[in-house]
Amino acid sequence: MGEEMELPFIEDVQLTEVMRLRVQSLQQKGQKRQDGERLLLPHEAVYRLNFTQQDLAFCNWKVTIKGPGRLSVTGISQLWTPDLTNLMTRQLLEPTGQFWRTAGDPEDAPIKCLEADIQEFGERIAELAKVRKVMYFLFAFKEGAEKDNITCSVVFKNNSG
């Protein structure tokens, strides 16, 4: 019982592209976003976690960032529907996961983070896993961070053992 499992975040390229097309469409037509709609920013992408088990307990995050930069991970409460309804700001979960490495940090130095926030965020993900097979996230790459230089996963303990 209590076997650990590491779940990697997987970029959802198709969903990210659909969200980028929404932004382009609004810009081309000179329209404004809907009230409360959250548009994807150029430095953001949609990622997902696929839960093979539902009864999980959060253990820890595993994040690597090569070089300086900041990764911001925001959970989305929305269950994406086939018609890909627009993302609304009220569907973004708090807290967010903030991970960063500053210029001059040795490569073997631990990634900096807001520990209380990432602990709470990890526990919320484990709670949502009880009722979901998939969960979506917005990844924001800031301050020089690039998605090719980052790996991110969450380690859970399987309670159903």
TrEMBL record:
Pfam families: Olfactory_mark. This is Olfactory marker protein a. One of its GO terms (biological process) is sensory perception of smell. It comes from the Eukaryota.
